[in-house]
Design goal:
The protein is of the alpha+beta class. 61% of the residues lie in helices and 9% in strands. Helix 2 packs across helix 3. The mean pLDDT is 91.
């Protein structure tokens, strides 16, 4: 039988894992112990089977991951002693909404606005759209590099490395021990960082043929097509994560290289937290 896929993300002083119909967040609290939050999780795609179709499931997975990730972040902040209370559902959805607005501004509005200044070189809509796509990539790389230099974020990136190593160990069918987990690389083909890079690249090709209407129509067209871009990127990352083909692995190498910025080597205590999170969804 095919091994069930698990995935996760780093949170404040911890790791969230999802799989086996559960989501578990393990956090190292201020006393040095590991706090666990485990909840059943059911995708809306289980109710509406059409949402499990290729190119539709990607957008569903992305949105559900945002919601679960925000809940896990809220729990981790409280467990680690950085917040007194967890976010309410209203506060959580408001936070996600404003984060999406900021992301659209940074990665959609600014690049397409800046690309208009290239009219002195060309008026061809195809090339203007390509230039906008490459501007988006530059902003994305600059953003990743900037946050990777922040001390607090670097600790989160260590937990990110622990998450990847533990998933590798699980996929290799080895006992989840610190010594086993430490043997594996911290770069994983199904990482969210790699996914975002693929989203950026796919968007270049999708948006290249949209023409060059006014600024607001350009922004609106890109927002409307984001589910399409996310769906294509999800299928690529899903296929790459399962493929043993050397050509496929060569094609996804840029996504792995980018993880040198978004992951760090974890210490043993961080690996213990990641292991606790995986064991919680398996049991």
């Amino acid at each position: 039988m095919e091994k069930p896929i698990i995935g996760g993300q780093a949170v404040i002083e911890g790791v969230m894992m999802r799989g086996f119909g559960k989501v578990a967040t393990a956090v190292r609290n201020a006393d040095g112990n590991i706090d666990l939050q485990v909840n059943p999780v059911k995708s809306i795609a289980d109710k509406y089977k059409i949402l499990k179709l290729p190119f539709l499931r990607g957008s569903v997975t992305l949105f559900e991951s945002l919601v679960l990730g925000m809940k896990s972040l809220s729990f981790s902040a409280q467990a680690a002693g950085e917040e007194d209370e967890q976010l309410t559902d209203t506060e959580m959805y408001a936070t996600i909404f404003f984060a999406l607005i900021l992301a659209c501004g940074l990665f959609l509005a600014i690049p397409t606005f800046a690309a208009k200044f290239l009219h002195t070189w060309t008026d061809d809509a195809f090339y203007l759209n390509l230039a906008e796509g490459f501007l988006r990539l530059i902003i994305f790389f600059a953003y990743i590099f900037a946050i990777s230099q922040m001390k607090d974020i670097q600790r989160v990136f260590q937990y990110h490395g622990a998450e990847h190593k533990t998933i590798f160990c699980y996929e290799a069918d080895l006992p989840l021990t610190v010594e086993n987990v430490k043997k594996f690389p911290r770069l994983h083909p199904r990482c969210g960082t790699a996914f975002l890079l693929i989203v950026m690249i796919v968007s270049i090709f999708v948006f290249a043929f949209l023409g060059w209407p006014n600024l607001w129509l350009r922004i609106l067209s890109r927002i409307i097509l984001l589910p399409v871009v996310a769906g294509i990127a999800y299928e690529i990352i899903r296929f790459a994560g399962r493929s043993k083909n050397s050509i496929v692995h060569l094609a996804i190498m840029p996504g792995l290289w980018l993880q040198y910025l978004t992951t760090r080597e974890p210490d043993d205590s961080m690996i213990e937290v990641a292991i606790a999170s995986v064991n919680a969804i398996k049991n």
